[in-house]
Amino acid sequence: MVTVNDGSKTRNSRAEFAAIGSLICIFVFLEMQFGVFAAISVALSLTLPGFKSYSLALFVGGWFGLTTYSLIRRRDLRNAIEAKEKVEEEFELSKIRDSVTGLPNGYAFHIVLEDKLRLVPRDPMSILGLEICNLDTISSVHGTAAAARAEVMFANKISSLIGPKDFVARGDHAMFYTLATGGSVDENRFRIDSIIEEIVAFSTSGLEVDGVNLQAYVTFGILDIDDVAFGGPEWDAKNILRRVDFARHKARRRGNQAVEIFDKRMENALHERAIIEASISGAIRNNEIVPYFQPLIDLSSQKVVGLEVLARWNHQSLGAISPGVFIPIAEDIGVLRLLTLSILRQACTAALAWPNHIRIAVNVSPTDLRDPAVTRKFIAVLNETGIKPERIEVEITENAFIEEAGQIAGAISSMKQEGISISIDDFGTGYSSLHHLRILPFDKIKIDQSFVRDMATNQESKAIVQSVIAMAKGLGLKTTAEGVELHENEDLLKDLGCSLGQGMLYAKPLPAAEVLPFVLRYEQGLANTAEGDQASSVA
Question: Is 90 a catalytic residue?
Protein backbone atom coordinates (compact mmCIF):
# COMPACT_ATOMS: atom_id res chain seq x y z
CA MET A 1 0.00 0.00 0.00
CA VAL A 2 1.05 3.61 -0.54
CA THR A 3 2.48 5.30 2.57
CA VAL A 4 2.95 9.08 2.66
CA ASN A 5 5.23 9.88 5.61
CA ASP A 6 3.63 13.23 6.64
CA GLY A 7 4.16 12.53 10.36
CA SER A 8 7.87 11.88 9.91
CA LYS A 9 8.22 15.00 7.74
CA THR A 10 6.54 17.19 10.39
CA ARG A 11 8.70 15.73 13.17
CA ASN A 12 11.87 16.44 11.16
CA SER A 13 10.83 20.06 10.60
CA ARG A 14 10.07 20.61 14.28
CA ALA A 15 13.39 19.07 15.24
CA GLU A 16 15.28 21.46 12.93
CA PHE A 17 13.49 24.54 14.29
CA ALA A 18 14.08 23.36 17.84
CA ALA A 19 17.79 22.85 17.19
CA ILE A 20 18.27 26.33 15.69
CA GLY A 21 16.15 27.97 18.39
CA SER A 22 18.03 26.14 21.14
CA LEU A 23 21.37 27.26 19.71
CA ILE A 24 20.28 30.90 19.61
CA CYS A 25 18.91 30.69 23.14
CA ILE A 26 22.21 29.30 24.42
CA PHE A 27 24.15 32.12 22.76
CA VAL A 28 21.81 34.77 24.24
CA PHE A 29 21.96 33.13 27.69
CA LEU A 30 25.78 33.05 27.68
CA GLU A 31 26.00 36.71 26.67
CA MET A 32 23.41 37.98 29.17
CA GLN A 33 24.56 35.86 32.10
CA PHE A 34 28.30 35.89 31.68
CA GLY A 35 29.05 38.42 28.94
CA VAL A 36 30.99 35.76 27.15
CA PHE A 37 30.97 37.43 23.76
CA ALA A 38 31.77 40.88 25.23
CA ALA A 39 34.73 39.36 27.12
CA ILE A 40 35.93 37.67 23.97
CA SER A 41 35.64 40.96 22.11
CA VAL A 42 37.65 42.83 24.83
CA ALA A 43 40.31 40.15 24.85
CA LEU A 44 40.60 40.22 21.10
CA SER A 45 40.75 44.05 21.05
CA LEU A 46 43.64 44.01 23.56
CA THR A 47 45.42 41.37 21.54
CA LEU A 48 44.48 42.82 18.17
CA PRO A 49 44.08 46.62 18.43
CA GLY A 50 42.25 46.84 15.13
CA PHE A 51 39.56 44.47 16.29
CA LYS A 52 37.80 46.91 18.63
CA SER A 53 36.36 49.06 15.86
CA TYR A 54 35.25 46.00 13.94
CA SER A 55 34.25 43.71 16.80
CA LEU A 56 30.59 44.53 16.61
CA ALA A 57 30.54 44.08 12.85
CA LEU A 58 32.34 40.76 13.13
CA PHE A 59 30.03 39.61 15.86
CA VAL A 60 26.91 40.58 13.88
CA GLY A 61 28.39 39.12 10.70
CA GLY A 62 29.24 35.86 12.43
CA TRP A 63 25.84 35.66 13.95
CA PHE A 64 24.20 36.37 10.57
CA GLY A 65 26.43 33.85 8.82
CA LEU A 66 25.65 31.16 11.34
CA THR A 67 21.94 31.82 11.00
CA THR A 68 22.10 31.90 7.19
CA TYR A 69 24.07 28.65 7.10
CA SER A 70 21.56 27.02 9.40
CA LEU A 71 18.65 28.12 7.22
CA ILE A 72 20.35 26.97 3.99
CA ARG A 73 21.25 23.71 5.59
CA ARG A 74 17.67 23.26 6.71
CA ARG A 75 16.40 23.99 3.19
CA ASP A 76 18.79 21.48 1.62
CA LEU A 77 17.87 18.89 4.20
CA ARG A 78 14.17 19.49 3.60
CA ASN A 79 14.63 19.15 -0.19
CA ALA A 80 16.58 15.93 0.27
CA ILE A 81 13.88 14.52 2.54
CA GLU A 82 11.14 15.52 0.10
CA ALA A 83 13.02 13.94 -2.83
CA LYS A 84 13.56 10.75 -0.86
CA GLU A 85 9.90 10.62 0.15
CA LYS A 86 8.82 11.20 -3.46
CA VAL A 87 10.98 8.32 -4.67
CA GLU A 88 9.62 6.09 -1.91
CA GLU A 89 6.05 7.13 -2.73
CA GLU A 90 6.51 6.44 -6.45
CA PHE A 91 8.09 3.09 -5.64
CA GLU A 92 5.18 2.15 -3.39
CA LEU A 93 2.71 3.28 -6.05
CA SER A 94 4.49 1.18 -8.69
CA LYS A 95 3.78 -1.91 -6.59
CA ILE A 96 0.03 -1.45 -6.81
CA ARG A 97 -0.53 0.55 -10.01
CA ASP A 98 -0.50 -0.65 -13.61
CA SER A 99 1.85 1.51 -15.65
CA VAL A 100 -0.22 1.31 -18.86
CA THR A 101 -3.79 1.94 -17.69
CA GLY A 102 -3.17 3.67 -14.36
CA LEU A 103 -5.55 1.22 -12.68
CA PRO A 104 -4.62 -0.72 -9.55
CA ASN A 105 -2.78 -3.88 -10.55
CA GLY A 106 -3.35 -7.52 -9.62
CA TYR A 107 -1.36 -7.14 -6.40
CA ALA A 108 -3.65 -4.30 -5.29
CA PHE A 109 -6.72 -6.34 -6.21
CA HIS A 110 -5.37 -9.20 -4.11
CA ILE A 111 -4.93 -6.88 -1.11
CA VAL A 112 -8.43 -5.39 -1.44
CA LEU A 113 -9.97 -8.83 -1.80
CA GLU A 114 -8.12 -10.11 1.27
CA ASP A 115 -9.43 -7.13 3.26
CA LYS A 116 -13.00 -7.93 2.16
CA LEU A 117 -12.59 -11.57 3.13
CA ARG A 118 -11.47 -10.65 6.66
CA LEU A 119 -14.77 -8.92 7.41
CA VAL A 120 -17.06 -10.69 9.87
CA PRO A 121 -19.72 -11.26 8.72
CA ARG A 122 -18.33 -11.40 5.19
CA ASP A 123 -20.25 -9.42 2.59
CA PRO A 124 -21.47 -11.27 -0.50
CA MET A 125 -19.47 -10.38 -3.59
CA SER A 126 -19.22 -11.15 -7.28
CA ILE A 127 -15.93 -11.14 -9.18
CA LEU A 128 -15.59 -10.71 -12.92
CA GLY A 129 -12.48 -11.68 -14.87
CA LEU A 130 -12.32 -10.14 -18.35
CA GLU A 131 -9.70 -11.02 -20.97
CA ILE A 132 -8.90 -9.28 -24.26
CA CYS A 133 -8.09 -12.52 -26.08
CA ASN A 134 -6.51 -11.04 -29.19
CA LEU A 135 -4.37 -8.35 -27.56
CA ASP A 136 -1.19 -10.01 -28.85
CA THR A 137 -2.60 -9.95 -32.37
CA ILE A 138 -3.47 -6.25 -32.07
CA SER A 139 0.07 -5.60 -30.84
CA SER A 140 1.78 -7.57 -33.62
CA VAL A 141 -0.42 -6.16 -36.42
CA HIS A 142 -0.95 -2.56 -35.32
CA GLY A 143 1.93 -2.02 -32.89
CA THR A 144 2.42 -1.95 -29.13
CA ALA A 145 1.22 1.66 -28.91
CA ALA A 146 -2.13 0.73 -30.45
CA ALA A 147 -2.47 -2.23 -28.09
CA ALA A 148 -1.73 0.05 -25.12
CA ARG A 149 -4.36 2.53 -26.33
CA ALA A 150 -6.89 -0.31 -26.56
CA GLU A 151 -6.08 -1.36 -23.00
CA VAL A 152 -6.56 2.21 -21.75
CA MET A 153 -9.91 2.44 -23.54
CA PHE A 154 -11.07 -0.77 -21.89
CA ALA A 155 -9.82 0.45 -18.50
CA ASN A 156 -11.71 3.73 -18.86
CA LYS A 157 -14.88 1.97 -20.02
CA ILE A 158 -14.90 -0.51 -17.13
CA SER A 159 -14.13 2.25 -14.62
CA SER A 160 -17.13 4.22 -15.87
CA LEU A 161 -19.44 1.25 -15.26
CA ILE A 162 -18.60 0.23 -11.69
CA GLY A 163 -20.55 1.30 -8.60
CA PRO A 164 -19.25 3.38 -5.66
CA LYS A 165 -18.40 0.28 -3.60
CA ASP A 166 -16.95 -1.72 -6.48
CA PHE A 167 -13.28 -2.09 -7.36
CA VAL A 168 -11.56 -2.60 -10.71
CA ALA A 169 -7.95 -3.60 -11.38
CA ARG A 170 -5.69 -4.62 -14.22
CA GLY A 171 -4.43 -8.19 -13.94
CA ASP A 172 -1.62 -9.92 -15.78
CA HIS A 173 -1.25 -9.14 -19.48
CA ALA A 174 -4.71 -8.76 -21.06
CA MET A 175 -6.77 -9.32 -17.89
CA PHE A 176 -9.08 -7.00 -15.95
CA TYR A 177 -10.81 -7.86 -12.67
CA THR A 178 -13.92 -6.25 -11.21
CA LEU A 179 -15.14 -6.78 -7.64
CA ALA A 180 -18.82 -6.01 -7.04
CA THR A 181 -19.85 -5.81 -3.40
CA GLY A 182 -22.12 -3.90 -1.06
CA GLY A 183 -25.33 -5.73 -1.90
CA SER A 184 -26.84 -9.19 -2.03
CA VAL A 185 -25.43 -11.82 -4.38
CA ASP A 186 -28.24 -11.09 -6.85
CA GLU A 187 -27.62 -7.34 -6.70
CA ASN A 188 -23.88 -7.77 -7.17
CA ARG A 189 -24.42 -10.15 -10.08
CA PHE A 190 -26.85 -7.73 -11.69
CA ARG A 191 -24.10 -5.10 -11.81
CA ILE A 192 -21.60 -7.64 -13.17
CA ASP A 193 -24.07 -8.73 -15.87
CA SER A 194 -24.66 -5.09 -16.77
CA ILE A 195 -20.91 -4.51 -17.09
CA ILE A 196 -20.60 -7.56 -19.37
CA GLU A 197 -23.45 -6.35 -21.56
CA GLU A 198 -21.86 -2.92 -21.93
CA ILE A 199 -18.38 -4.33 -22.61
CA VAL A 200 -19.74 -6.68 -25.28
CA ALA A 201 -21.44 -3.75 -27.02
CA PHE A 202 -18.27 -1.67 -26.60
CA SER A 203 -16.00 -4.31 -28.13
CA THR A 204 -18.45 -5.20 -30.91
CA SER A 205 -18.57 -1.61 -32.13
CA GLY A 206 -14.78 -1.60 -32.50
CA LEU A 207 -12.11 0.60 -30.97
CA GLU A 208 -11.04 3.68 -32.92
CA VAL A 209 -7.28 3.99 -32.51
CA ASP A 210 -5.43 6.45 -34.74
CA GLY A 211 -8.14 6.22 -37.38
CA VAL A 212 -8.13 2.41 -37.40
CA ASN A 213 -11.10 0.37 -36.19
CA LEU A 214 -9.73 -2.43 -34.00
CA GLN A 215 -11.84 -5.47 -33.18
CA ALA A 216 -11.31 -6.77 -29.66
CA TYR A 217 -12.33 -10.33 -28.75
CA VAL A 218 -13.32 -10.70 -25.11
CA THR A 219 -14.27 -13.54 -22.77
CA PHE A 220 -15.57 -13.49 -19.19
CA GLY A 221 -15.32 -15.63 -16.06
CA ILE A 222 -17.56 -15.00 -13.04
CA LEU A 223 -17.47 -16.16 -9.43
CA ASP A 224 -20.19 -15.40 -6.86
CA ILE A 225 -19.05 -15.63 -3.24
CA ASP A 226 -21.57 -16.32 -0.50
CA ASP A 227 -20.90 -17.81 2.94
CA VAL A 228 -23.72 -20.25 2.34
CA ALA A 229 -22.68 -21.41 -1.14
CA PHE A 230 -18.92 -21.30 -0.69
CA GLY A 231 -16.54 -21.10 2.20
CA GLY A 232 -13.66 -22.70 4.02
CA PRO A 233 -10.01 -21.91 4.67
CA GLU A 234 -9.06 -22.59 1.04
CA TRP A 235 -11.19 -19.64 -0.06
CA ASP A 236 -8.49 -16.99 0.21
CA ALA A 237 -7.77 -14.29 -2.38
CA LYS A 238 -5.28 -16.42 -4.32
CA ASN A 239 -7.61 -19.39 -4.67
CA ILE A 240 -10.61 -17.20 -5.43
CA LEU A 241 -8.78 -15.59 -8.36
CA ARG A 242 -7.69 -19.05 -9.45
CA ARG A 243 -11.35 -20.02 -9.69
CA VAL A 244 -12.20 -16.87 -11.65
CA ASP A 245 -9.36 -17.63 -14.08
CA PHE A 246 -10.53 -21.23 -14.40
CA ALA A 247 -13.99 -20.04 -15.46
CA ARG A 248 -12.40 -17.59 -17.89
CA HIS A 249 -10.28 -20.37 -19.42
CA LYS A 250 -13.44 -22.38 -20.03
CA ALA A 251 -15.06 -19.34 -21.64
CA ARG A 252 -12.08 -18.77 -23.93
CA ARG A 253 -12.46 -22.26 -25.38
CA ARG A 254 -16.03 -21.38 -26.37
CA GLY A 255 -14.94 -18.30 -28.29
CA ASN A 256 -15.48 -14.55 -28.47
CA GLN A 257 -17.87 -12.97 -25.92
CA ALA A 258 -18.40 -16.28 -24.09
CA VAL A 259 -19.27 -16.14 -20.38
CA GLU A 260 -18.65 -18.92 -17.84
CA ILE A 261 -19.84 -18.93 -14.22
CA PHE A 262 -17.82 -20.91 -11.70
CA ASP A 263 -19.96 -23.58 -10.04
CA LYS A 264 -19.65 -26.84 -8.11
CA ARG A 265 -19.04 -28.74 -11.34
CA MET A 266 -16.07 -26.54 -12.06
CA GLU A 267 -14.90 -26.97 -8.48
CA ASN A 268 -14.46 -30.69 -9.14
CA ALA A 269 -12.69 -29.95 -12.43
CA LEU A 270 -10.42 -27.49 -10.62
CA HIS A 271 -9.36 -30.16 -8.13
CA GLU A 272 -8.67 -32.50 -11.05
CA ARG A 273 -6.59 -29.77 -12.69
CA ALA A 274 -4.55 -29.40 -9.49
CA ILE A 275 -3.77 -33.13 -9.60
CA ILE A 276 -2.78 -32.88 -13.27
CA GLU A 277 -0.56 -29.86 -12.64
CA ALA A 278 1.21 -31.66 -9.82
CA SER A 279 1.89 -34.82 -11.82
CA ILE A 280 2.34 -33.79 -15.45
CA SER A 281 6.04 -32.89 -15.23
CA GLY A 282 6.88 -36.30 -13.76
CA ALA A 283 4.70 -37.99 -16.35
CA ILE A 284 6.65 -36.27 -19.14
CA ARG A 285 10.01 -37.27 -17.64
CA ASN A 286 8.89 -40.90 -17.25
CA ASN A 287 7.32 -41.12 -20.73
CA GLU A 288 3.91 -41.83 -19.21
CA ILE A 289 2.36 -39.57 -21.84
CA VAL A 290 2.78 -41.55 -25.05
CA PRO A 291 2.12 -41.03 -28.76
CA TYR A 292 -0.81 -42.68 -30.53
CA PHE A 293 -1.04 -42.62 -34.31
CA GLN A 294 -4.02 -42.12 -36.63
CA PRO A 295 -3.43 -43.14 -40.27
CA LEU A 296 -3.52 -40.68 -43.17
CA ILE A 297 -4.86 -42.32 -46.33
CA ASP A 298 -4.07 -41.26 -49.91
CA LEU A 299 -7.57 -41.00 -51.40
CA SER A 300 -6.43 -41.82 -54.93
CA SER A 301 -4.35 -44.93 -54.11
CA GLN A 302 -5.99 -45.79 -50.77
CA LYS A 303 -2.54 -46.42 -49.29
CA VAL A 304 -1.34 -45.42 -45.82
CA VAL A 305 1.06 -42.53 -46.46
CA GLY A 306 1.27 -40.95 -43.03
CA LEU A 307 0.24 -40.91 -39.39
CA GLU A 308 -0.82 -38.03 -37.18
CA VAL A 309 0.77 -38.15 -33.73
CA LEU A 310 -1.73 -37.74 -30.87
CA ALA A 311 -0.71 -37.58 -27.20
CA ARG A 312 -2.40 -39.98 -24.77
CA TRP A 313 -2.11 -40.13 -20.98
CA ASN A 314 -3.51 -42.85 -18.75
CA HIS A 315 -3.14 -41.26 -15.30
CA GLN A 316 -2.60 -43.63 -12.40
CA SER A 317 -5.45 -42.14 -10.33
CA LEU A 318 -7.58 -40.19 -12.81
CA GLY A 319 -7.49 -42.75 -15.61
CA ALA A 320 -7.49 -41.69 -19.26
CA ILE A 321 -7.20 -37.90 -19.53
CA SER A 322 -8.25 -36.17 -22.74
CA PRO A 323 -5.46 -34.25 -24.52
CA GLY A 324 -7.94 -31.39 -24.71
CA VAL A 325 -7.55 -31.23 -20.92
CA PHE A 326 -3.88 -31.85 -20.22
CA ILE A 327 -2.31 -30.06 -23.21
CA PRO A 328 -3.73 -26.61 -22.31
CA ILE A 329 -2.61 -27.21 -18.71
CA ALA A 330 0.89 -28.11 -19.93
CA GLU A 331 0.96 -24.86 -21.89
CA ASP A 332 -0.33 -22.82 -18.95
CA ILE A 333 2.38 -24.07 -16.56
CA GLY A 334 5.19 -23.90 -19.12
CA VAL A 335 5.94 -27.59 -19.78
CA LEU A 336 4.32 -27.95 -23.21
CA ARG A 337 7.64 -27.74 -25.03
CA LEU A 338 8.98 -30.59 -22.90
CA LEU A 339 5.88 -32.62 -23.71
CA THR A 340 6.17 -31.87 -27.45
CA LEU A 341 9.83 -32.93 -27.56
CA SER A 342 9.08 -36.07 -25.51
CA ILE A 343 6.23 -37.11 -27.82
CA LEU A 344 8.36 -36.30 -30.87
CA ARG A 345 11.28 -38.40 -29.61
CA GLN A 346 9.02 -41.39 -28.87
CA ALA A 347 7.23 -41.07 -32.22
CA CYS A 348 10.46 -40.80 -34.22
CA THR A 349 11.94 -43.81 -32.46
CA ALA A 350 8.83 -45.87 -33.25
CA ALA A 351 8.71 -44.68 -36.88
CA LEU A 352 12.17 -46.08 -37.61
CA ALA A 353 10.59 -49.55 -37.75
CA TRP A 354 7.97 -48.51 -40.32
CA PRO A 355 8.23 -48.16 -44.12
CA ASN A 356 10.16 -45.05 -45.15
CA HIS A 357 7.29 -43.65 -47.23
CA ILE A 358 5.15 -43.22 -44.10
CA ARG A 359 5.43 -39.69 -42.71
CA ILE A 360 4.49 -38.59 -39.19
CA ALA A 361 2.64 -35.34 -38.48
CA VAL A 362 3.25 -33.59 -35.16
CA ASN A 363 1.29 -30.67 -33.70
CA VAL A 364 3.53 -27.87 -32.43
CA SER A 365 2.36 -24.90 -30.38
CA PRO A 366 3.08 -21.45 -31.83
CA THR A 367 4.25 -20.46 -28.37
CA ASP A 368 7.09 -22.96 -28.79
CA LEU A 369 7.81 -21.91 -32.36
CA ARG A 370 8.42 -18.35 -31.20
CA ASP A 371 11.45 -19.62 -29.26
CA PRO A 372 14.42 -20.35 -31.60
CA ALA A 373 15.87 -22.69 -28.95
CA VAL A 374 12.82 -24.95 -29.23
CA THR A 375 13.21 -25.14 -33.01
CA ARG A 376 16.85 -26.14 -32.59
CA LYS A 377 15.90 -28.79 -30.03
CA PHE A 378 13.18 -30.09 -32.36
CA ILE A 379 15.72 -30.61 -35.15
CA ALA A 380 18.21 -32.05 -32.64
CA VAL A 381 15.68 -34.77 -31.72
CA LEU A 382 15.45 -35.77 -35.39
CA ASN A 383 19.24 -36.03 -35.59
CA GLU A 384 19.37 -37.91 -32.29
CA THR A 385 16.83 -40.54 -33.36
CA GLY A 386 18.18 -40.80 -36.90
CA ILE A 387 14.89 -40.17 -38.71
CA LYS A 388 14.97 -38.18 -41.93
CA PRO A 389 13.43 -34.68 -41.67
CA GLU A 390 11.59 -35.38 -44.93
CA ARG A 391 9.41 -37.84 -43.01
CA ILE A 392 8.26 -35.16 -40.54
CA GLU A 393 5.33 -32.81 -40.93
CA VAL A 394 4.65 -29.99 -38.44
CA GLU A 395 1.02 -28.98 -37.98
CA ILE A 396 0.07 -25.49 -36.80
CA THR A 397 -3.54 -24.56 -36.07
CA GLU A 398 -5.06 -21.92 -38.31
CA ASN A 399 -5.95 -19.50 -35.49
CA ALA A 400 -2.45 -19.86 -34.07
CA PHE A 401 -0.61 -18.99 -37.25
CA ILE A 402 -2.91 -16.00 -37.84
CA GLU A 403 -2.13 -14.60 -34.38
CA GLU A 404 1.57 -15.48 -34.44
CA ALA A 405 2.41 -15.27 -38.16
CA GLY A 406 5.08 -12.60 -37.81
CA GLN A 407 6.74 -14.28 -34.84
CA ILE A 408 6.83 -17.86 -36.16
CA ALA A 409 7.84 -17.14 -39.76
CA GLY A 410 11.52 -17.64 -38.90
CA ALA A 411 10.88 -21.03 -37.28
CA ILE A 412 8.82 -22.18 -40.27
CA SER A 413 11.60 -21.17 -42.66
CA SER A 414 14.24 -22.94 -40.56
CA MET A 415 12.24 -26.18 -40.53
CA LYS A 416 11.56 -25.96 -44.25
CA GLN A 417 15.30 -25.61 -44.89
CA GLU A 418 15.82 -28.87 -42.99
CA GLY A 419 13.29 -30.64 -45.21
CA ILE A 420 10.36 -30.65 -42.76
CA SER A 421 6.88 -30.08 -44.23
CA ILE A 422 4.45 -27.55 -42.72
CA SER A 423 0.66 -27.81 -42.72
CA ILE A 424 -2.21 -25.68 -41.43
CA ASP A 425 -4.45 -27.63 -39.05
CA ASP A 426 -8.19 -27.09 -38.42
CA PHE A 427 -8.49 -24.92 -41.52
CA GLY A 428 -11.84 -23.16 -41.87
CA THR A 429 -12.33 -22.42 -38.18
CA GLY A 430 -10.36 -19.16 -38.28
CA TYR A 431 -9.98 -16.25 -40.65
CA SER A 432 -6.83 -16.91 -42.63
CA SER A 433 -5.39 -14.21 -44.78
CA LEU A 434 -4.60 -15.31 -48.34
CA HIS A 435 -1.56 -13.10 -47.97
CA HIS A 436 -0.28 -15.39 -45.19
CA LEU A 437 -1.02 -18.48 -47.25
CA ARG A 438 0.97 -17.01 -50.11
CA ILE A 439 4.03 -15.70 -48.29
CA LEU A 440 4.49 -18.46 -45.66
CA PRO A 441 5.92 -21.73 -47.02
CA PHE A 442 3.06 -24.11 -46.20
CA ASP A 443 2.77 -27.49 -47.91
CA LYS A 444 -0.66 -28.68 -46.89
CA ILE A 445 -4.05 -27.55 -45.58
CA LYS A 446 -6.04 -29.77 -43.20
CA ILE A 447 -9.78 -29.16 -43.50
CA ASP A 448 -11.47 -29.12 -40.11
CA GLN A 449 -13.61 -32.15 -39.32
CA SER A 450 -16.64 -30.01 -38.44
CA PHE A 451 -17.11 -29.35 -42.18
CA VAL A 452 -16.21 -32.85 -43.37
CA ARG A 453 -18.53 -34.87 -41.13
CA ASP A 454 -21.79 -33.39 -42.43
CA MET A 455 -20.76 -32.37 -45.95
CA ALA A 456 -23.01 -35.06 -47.47
CA THR A 457 -26.11 -33.55 -45.87
CA ASN A 458 -25.11 -29.91 -45.40
CA GLN A 459 -24.65 -27.93 -48.60
CA GLU A 460 -22.93 -25.07 -46.79
CA SER A 461 -20.29 -27.43 -45.36
CA LYS A 462 -19.83 -29.04 -48.76
CA ALA A 463 -19.36 -25.63 -50.37
CA ILE A 464 -16.72 -24.69 -47.80
CA VAL A 465 -14.82 -27.95 -48.34
CA GLN A 466 -15.03 -27.52 -52.10
CA SER A 467 -13.75 -23.94 -51.90
CA VAL A 468 -10.82 -24.88 -49.65
CA ILE A 469 -9.76 -27.71 -51.96
CA ALA A 470 -10.00 -25.44 -55.02
CA MET A 471 -8.01 -22.70 -53.29
CA ALA A 472 -5.33 -25.17 -52.19
CA LYS A 473 -4.99 -26.48 -55.74
CA GLY A 474 -4.57 -22.94 -57.00
CA LEU A 475 -1.78 -22.38 -54.48
CA GLY A 476 -0.15 -25.72 -55.24
CA LEU A 477 -0.94 -27.17 -51.79
CA LYS A 478 -2.19 -30.62 -50.83
CA THR A 479 -5.31 -31.06 -48.68
CA THR A 480 -6.18 -33.45 -45.87
CA ALA A 481 -9.78 -33.96 -44.75
CA GLU A 482 -10.18 -34.73 -41.03
CA GLY A 483 -13.13 -36.59 -39.55
CA VAL A 484 -13.85 -38.94 -42.47
CA GLU A 485 -16.35 -41.41 -41.02
CA LEU A 486 -18.63 -42.33 -43.94
CA HIS A 487 -17.90 -43.83 -47.36
CA GLU A 488 -20.29 -41.26 -48.81
CA ASN A 489 -18.08 -38.43 -47.57
CA GLU A 490 -14.97 -40.21 -48.80
CA ASP A 491 -16.47 -40.45 -52.30
CA LEU A 492 -17.35 -36.75 -52.28
CA LEU A 493 -13.82 -35.84 -51.19
CA LYS A 494 -12.36 -37.93 -54.04
CA ASP A 495 -14.63 -36.22 -56.56
CA LEU A 496 -13.60 -32.78 -55.25
CA GLY A 497 -9.92 -33.65 -55.58
CA CYS A 498 -8.92 -33.88 -51.91
CA SER A 499 -5.47 -35.42 -51.44
CA LEU A 500 -5.71 -37.30 -48.11
CA GLY A 501 -8.32 -38.56 -45.69
CA GLN A 502 -8.14 -39.14 -41.94
CA GLY A 503 -10.79 -40.48 -39.59
CA MET A 504 -12.58 -43.40 -37.99
CA LEU A 505 -13.54 -44.79 -41.40
CA TYR A 506 -9.96 -45.99 -41.71
CA ALA A 507 -8.80 -46.47 -38.12
CA LYS A 508 -8.95 -45.08 -34.61
CA PRO A 509 -5.71 -43.72 -33.08
CA LEU A 510 -3.35 -46.64 -32.52
CA PRO A 511 -0.56 -47.27 -30.02
CA ALA A 512 2.89 -47.58 -31.59
CA ALA A 513 2.94 -51.39 -31.30
CA GLU A 514 -0.22 -51.71 -33.44
CA VAL A 515 0.80 -49.40 -36.29
CA LEU A 516 2.89 -51.79 -38.38
CA PRO A 517 0.38 -54.70 -38.10
CA PHE A 518 -2.36 -52.29 -39.18
CA VAL A 519 -0.36 -51.06 -42.18
CA LEU A 520 0.39 -54.63 -43.29
CA ARG A 521 -3.26 -55.68 -42.88
CA TYR A 522 -4.50 -52.58 -44.68
CA GLU A 523 -2.15 -53.05 -47.62
CA GLN A 524 -2.99 -56.76 -47.77
CA GLY A 525 -6.65 -55.81 -47.87
CA LEU A 526 -5.95 -53.47 -50.79
CA ALA A 527 -4.08 -56.21 -52.60
CA ASN A 528 -6.91 -58.68 -52.06
CA THR A 529 -9.45 -56.13 -53.30
CA ALA A 530 -7.34 -55.46 -56.38
CA GLU A 531 -7.06 -59.19 -57.12
CA GLY A 532 -10.79 -59.60 -56.67
CA ASP A 533 -11.52 -56.71 -59.02
CA GLN A 534 -9.09 -58.14 -61.58
CA ALA A 535 -10.69 -61.58 -61.36
CA SER A 536 -14.14 -60.05 -61.81
CA SER A 537 -13.04 -58.10 -64.87
CA VAL A 538 -11.50 -61.24 -66.42
CA ALA A 539 -14.66 -63.21 -65.74
Answer: no
